[in-house]
Each structure stands twice: as structure tokens, then as C-alpha cells.
Amino acid sequence: MALKAYARLAVACLLAASPLAAMAGSLDEVILFDSARSHAEFKVRVLWMFDVEGRFGHVYGHVRLDRGAGSGVVDARIDANAVKMRRSGMEDWVKSAEFFDVARHPEIRFLSDPFPLERLTEGGSLPGSLALRGIRGRVVFDVRPATCARPGVECAVEATGILRRGVFGMRSRKGTLADKVELQLAVWTDPATPGIAP
What we know:
The protein is of the alpha+beta class. It is 17% helix and 42% strand. Strands 1, 2, 3, 4, 5, 6, 7, 8, 9, 10, 11 and 12 form a twelve-stranded antiparallel beta sheet that branches. The N and C termini lie far apart (49 Å).
């Protein structure tokens, strides 16, 4: 009995050290964002006549790839407190509890559903969950077809999503401010990591 157990253990050790095991363990790969170049923008319509626009200077996060399955998951985080607008008064307003409420919820986070890697080159929908103001809701981003062979390295991965203010607890100024907010992402990957194209 002891001999059989020893044999099974020896076989297990050999399999663990095999190239197949090493290959299986390397299927998951994490590609970091280049936060210095990645950014996000938003806009919301006021009085149904003009748009108020803002820009977040840094987007942090990563893409977790499963090369074996040919799929990936995006985890993007936006520093809401870093929003910049043309007028400081508007900047204070979007940071207030009436809008992004950055004092209590300084981060906006999008976590995508698993998606085929071809989506990054061919474009298409990228659904997932968005955490904003401490509330999590479903949002679908539309990824634009890539304009280069290595998206994230030679050109930004660009995506646009629509969220509803009411879903995330922003229910004030219904008479003057549209419920729809457009959120745009432009993501570059860290040049020290490989590309994310399939």
C-alpha cells in the first residue's frame, strides 16, 4: 500500500514539473494600464441645448487574459477626484454629493464580463458592472474598432458607455439636467508588458 502511494506521489510530481503543467499555469496573463496616458471623459446635456464635459486625467487598472480560452476581463478604475473641467465652479459641483460625491466615493470602477479578445481589434459591445457613488449597476460599453495592429500599444483602446444618473442615485435637477451621462475611456497599456491583441 505504501509503495502504491509513493508511486502516485512520484507521478504527480513528474506531471507538475512537465512543460504541459507550466503551459497551463501561464494561460492567465495580466496586462497593466499605462495610467499616465490612459484617460476618461464624460459629458451630460444641460437644458437639452449644450453639453457639460469633464476629463479624468488618469485611469488605472488591468486586463486579465486567458490565452487558452481566448478571452479577457477588464478592470478599470477612475480617480473621480481628479476630474478637470473648464470652470472651477463646475468642477466643485460635479465633485459634490449632488453628482459624483467624491468625498465619500473617490473611485469609479468598471469590471467587464469575460469577452473574446477579438473585441479589442474588431470592436463591439463590452458589458459589465460599474460602481459609482457606492452603487453598482450594469453598463454596456461600445468598443471602437482598432486603428492599428496592436491596440493598447500602437493606439488607444477606445470605448463609450451610457449610464443613467437615476440608477446611481443622482436624482437632482431633473428639469435641467439629462439623465443620460456618456462616459468615454481611452486605454493604453504599460509599454513594459506585451500587447493585448489576440
